[in-house]
Design goal:
mainly alpha
């Protein structure tokens, strides 16, 4: 629905530039809700720390995810959720496929 999409964009845009306005909490709540509704969500940002802040809060809430990115830039508490960690024991394309498919919300 185009009207709903525009409303969601406006809500998020309103919070983007205001410090201490609850941006992270808003994103965490939206991601958690979308995942519970069976949606796949991609969280991106200009900084690794911003993504990690969201993911640390999602991890505390029990939301499963795959953390992509350079291992040297990923927060140490998220290492077990990193792509490198999850695929380290894979030896076949089928095992890789299984790992990646397990992170998709149906």
């Amino acid at each position: 629905n185009i009207k709903k999409d525009n409303l969601h964009n406006r809500i998020i845009e309103t919070k983007i530039h205001k410090p201490f306005s609850g941006k992270t909490a808003t994103v965490v709540a939206l991601v958690e809700l979308l995942v519970k509704l069976g949606q796949s969500v991609l969280v991106t940002s200009h900084t690794h720390s911003a993504v990690d802040n969201v993911l640390l809060k999602l991890m505390a809430r029990g939301v499963d995810f795959l953390r992509l990115g350079s291992s040297s830039r990923i927060h140490s508490q998220l290492a077990e959720k990193s792509e490198l960690h999850l695929i380290s024991d894979c030896t076949t394309p089928e095992q890789l496929e299984s790992i990646y498919n397990s992170k998709v919300c149906d």
